[in-house]
Amino acid sequence: MKRNLYFLLSGLGILLWACDNDDQYPDQPQINYLSSNIIDSTDVLGNELKVCRLRFEFTDGDGDIGLKEEDTLAPFNQGSIYYNNLWVDYFEWKDSVFVERELEPPYDGRIIYLTPDGQNKTLIGTITYDMDISGLDADTFKLEVQLIDRALNESNLLVTPPILVN
């Protein structure tokens, strides 16, 4: 099954709070579901794709979200569970129940380095994440998502509502 993983951070949607801010946020990332949409798209070769676009907001008190391209030493080395800092599990609706399905390649991805300059490292923003679902035959699915920061703190588990493909 040929699939491409697309990652898109909405540049305008990322809000970096690096000024005086009295709000205190935990060092563990927190994520909240905003939306999911099925859209028609094309890849760089012009092939038509069906894409699930997931949007969620996040906060991180110490701002250590994201990895640089050169972050490939342990624990962020390829083959490690921490190589990707966005974990996505896929569940298909089958026989009146959601069943987890292992995808190859998985929908996991690497969020780019987002730490702000300045003394206040608190991050508040929105991530838009695209996943190619062209090769999947389910008409309803859901996702479970976690964001992992550089200190290996795992966010809460975000569970999407059922997503209808048609």
Could you explain how this protein is built, in words?
The chain has 166 residues and is mainly β. It has one domain: Immunoglobulin-like (Sandwich), CATH 2.60.40. It is built from no helices and ten strands. Strands 1, 2, 3, 4 and 7 form a five-stranded antiparallel beta sheet that branches. Strands 5, 6, 8, 9 and 10 form a five-stranded antiparallel beta sheet that branches. A hairpin with a 2-residue loop joins β5 and β6 (97-101).
Per the principal axes of the C-alpha atoms, what is the gross shape? globular
Gyration radius (Cα, Å) is 16 Å
Number of strands: 10
- Architecture, CATH level 2? Sandwich
Distance, first to last CA:
20 Å
Average per-residue pLDDT, rounded, comes to: 88
Q: How many helices in DSSP terms?
A: 0
CATH topology: Immunoglobulin-like
Structural class comes to: mainly beta
Largest sheet: 5 strands, antiparallel
CATH class membership: Mainly Beta
Order of helices and strands: EEEEEEEEEE
Helix percentage: under 10%
